[in-house]
Design a protein that fits this description.
The chain is mostly helical and about 270 residues long. It has a single domain, classed as ABC transporter involved in vitamin B12 uptake, BtuC (Orthogonal Bundle), CATH 1.10.3470. It is built from twelve helices and no strands. The longest helix has 26 residues. The model has no long low-confidence stretch (mean pLDDT about 85).
Length: about 270
Amino acid sequence: MIEALHFAFVQHALIAGVLVSLAAGIIGSLIVVNRMVFLAGGIAHASYGGIGMAVFFGLPIFLGASVFAMLAALLVATLTLHKRHHLDTFIGLIWAVGMAIGVVFTDLTPGYNVDLMSYLFGSILAVSTSDLYFMGALLALIVLVVVFWYRPILAVSYDNEYAKLRGIPVRFFYTLILVLSALTVVIAIKVVGLILVIAMLTIPVYIAEKLSSSLWQMMLYSGAFATLFTLIGLWFSYTYNLTSGASIILVSATGLGLFLIARRGR
């Protein structure tokens, strides 16, 4: 794969893989400790509505998916903060409606022949320079938010009641985590696709959680594991001419299996 590094699209793919992996490690940790995995899955699939609308109106795909995903996150936050017993219903509804909107708008687009499989399973080799700027800016935003508000985010993530007693605005941070999750899902779609994005957000975090004693350690370890799995997956994808998103997830699953075997052996 060394000779392939001379190609710009391969360089872009590697940079994108690292940026998205680090973002996924941080946000994935928050998703897991806040028990938002199903919520993130619903937002991921709902963002397909933004993809369809962007295609129909001739807008950048990232822009359409990001706006739609953020709106879905705000709606989810509003509906679920105080009505957790209806969570499954709300998420299933948003999931299905978002996907349906995307399909309908894509059908209505005249002469649209682009392979939609790239959005379902990722197209990391098609990452552009502008995509990299977007990914880099989002990663910087995530790091700044987590560093600046680490203590209140920690309190909200592990004990809502304690956070309320301390005067922490739980609604604000709950919504903030969901919005950042939505944006991370959007950029991860470029790497592994919306069908596989939840695996990227959770597999490295599961390993990191078993090795960590604090939330910040979990974020660091999961970011490192996600980066490692992504780079190995890209190597397999290039070497054996496989779909990049599926390769990354299979490498991640293999890494998880080896970790569990080693942990049981100890």
